[in-house]
Amino acid sequence: MVLSFASDRPFDLVTLGRACVDLNAFDYNRPLEETKTFVKYVGGSPTNIAIGARRLGLRTGIIAKVSDDAMGRFVVSFLQQVGVDTSAIVIDREGHKTGLAFTEIKSPTECSILLYRDDVADLYLSPEDITEDYLRKTKVLLISGTALAKSPSREAAFYAAELARRHGVRLVFELDYRPYTWKSLYEPMVYYTLMARLADVVIGTREEYDIMEGGPGQDEATASQLFVHAPSLVVVKHGVDGSIAYTREGAVKVQAFPAKVLKTFGAGDAYASSFLYGLLAGHTLKRALAMASAAAAIVVSRHSSSEAMPALEEIESLLSEHCEPSRG
Ligand SMILES: Nc1ncnc2c1ncn2[C@@H]1O[C@H](COP(=O)(O)OP(=O)(O)OP(=O)(O)O)[C@@H](O)[C@H]1O
Ligand SMILES: O=C(O)C[C@@H](O)[C@H](O)C(=O)CO
User: Fold this and answer.
1) How confident is the model at residue 216 (pLDDT cuts 50, 70, 90)?
2) Are 284 and 244 in contact (CB under 8 A)?
3) In the beta sheet, which residues pair with residue 91?
4) Residues pairing with 159 in the sheet
5) Ligand 2 atom with the shortest distance to the CA of 304
6) Quick check: CB of 257 below 6 Å from ligand 1?
7) Are the C-beta atoms of residues 17 and 176 closer than 8 Å to each other?
8) 265 CB under 6 A from ligand 2?
9) How far is ligand 2, taken at its centre, from the CA of residue 266, in Å?
10) What span, in angstroms and rounded, lies between the C-alpha atoms of 224 and 246?
11) DSSP, residue by residue, 174-200
12) What gap in Å lies between CA 70 and CA 198, rounded to an integer?
């Protein structure tokens, strides 16, 4: 087992961060300016991860703040339908809105996201909204880096991380950098570093680690610097060039799977949910990485990032198709 987890907890995974709405271009393969129709999905990286992990059979929940309107109700009701626990979702009573993401699908390789996130409800999650009892109930807490972009969500995330450590909950930090939410590059540099040092597992793209480190770095050096602190597992994603996981004992690399790509976003969320599933199921690091990579390849071939999350059989079938790697 790569990591041990507390036993006898009602939840396997709780995520903390934004619960939002994605409006994905329906008449795609054109710029956003020319897109007239959109399909509405639940979105936001930590929410997608809770949904993806639930689809694989994990018992998941999410700590978030949503608007007191139709968008907030849409998010909560979808999560309930798919079996993600919503009892720690707080309703904002001060009129802040749920974030919206308009996704542009110009071509399978040219995608972008236009976020409407001014004064969004999720960044108003506050330490008072965090319940110690809820955190005590999970094996893993995943914190999204975007939750650190602003107070009081920033303090809520650090408070939750502290409670997680106190109660033997494994802490996963997903860097999840979205440029528009931060005031300067110094902010993510400082807060990412502080959170990453507290976490057991850190997951991010090379570009996101560069933001954290304040300049271009090397994967191995990134991992070694974190191993001085709490992390024992550091995952660096390189898009279609695959990903690599470092432990104190060494590194394991996995290739991306070939995919008929519809859009590029959502890959990272599918990857995290499936990777954590693999770790919690006690698979080898190689197998957990391959499952992550397979889930990501499936989601990039589909229209959404949440409803598109694959079932275990779909991941296993892709793995066996490519005969990689052996079970562990
Ligand atoms: N075009 C692709 N085809 C197949 N697999 C892909 C593709 N892009 C990404 N992946 C897989 O998804 C993993 C994560 O992708 P990436 O490094 O782009 O993370 P990310 O930037 O967090 O994703 P996102 O775009 O969802 O924010 C990669 O390591 C790879 O396994
Ligand atoms: O909130 C966002 O950043 C957009 C997401 O909702 C979207 O589903 C995505 O980018 C997945 O990673």
Assistant:
1) very high
2) no
3) 66
4) none
5) 8
6) yes
7) yes
8) yes
9) 6
10) 9
11) E----GGG-SSTHHHHHHHHHHHHH-S
12) 36
pLDDT at 323: 61
Structure token digits, residue 222: 């990134």
Please report, for the chain, the start and end positions of each structural domain, with discontinuous segments joined by +: 11-321
For residue 166, the CA-to-ligand 2 centroid distance in Å is: 30
Mutate to test the pocket of ligand 2, among 305, 306, 307, 309 (most ligand atoms within 8 A of CB): 305
Q: Could you tell me the pLDDT band of residue 325, with boundaries at 50, 70 and 90? A: very low
Whether 123 contacts 157, CB under 8 Å: no
Question: Does residue 327 register a pLDDT over 90?
Answer: no
Other CB atoms closer than 10 Å to residue 89's CB: what's the count? 22
Domain at 11-321, CATH homologous superfamily:
Ribokinase (3.40.1190.20)
Q: Which ligand does the CA of 109 lie closest to?
A: 1
Q: Which residues of 205-244 are buried (b: 16+ CB within 10 A; e: fewer)?
A: bbebbbbbbeeeeebeebbebbeeebbbbbbbbeeeeebb
Question: How many Å apart are CA 30 and CA 110, to the nearest integer?
Answer: 10
The ipTM (two decimal places) reads: 0.96
Structure tokens at 310: 């694959």
Spell out where the chain has E strands. Answer: 11-16, 20-25, 38-43, 60-67, 89-92, 100-107, 110-116, 138-144, 170-174, 201-205, 233-237, 243-247, 250-254
In sequence order, which residues have a C-beta less than 8 Å from that of residue 221 and are 6 or more positions away?
Answer: none
CA of 235 to the centre of ligand 2 (A): 20
- Host H or E run for residue 74: helix 70-82
Distance 296 CA to ligand 1 centre (A): 6
Main-chain phi, psi angles of 148, to 5 degrees: -90, 0
Tokens of 256: 């991306």
Residue entry with tokens 């006898």: 8
Torsions phi, psi for 231 (to 5 deg): -55, 140
pTM of the predicted model, to two decimals? Answer: 0.97
> Are the CB atoms for 280 and 266 separated by under 8 Å?
no
326 pLDDT exceeds 50? no
The Å distance, Cα 288 to ligand 2 centre, comes to 23
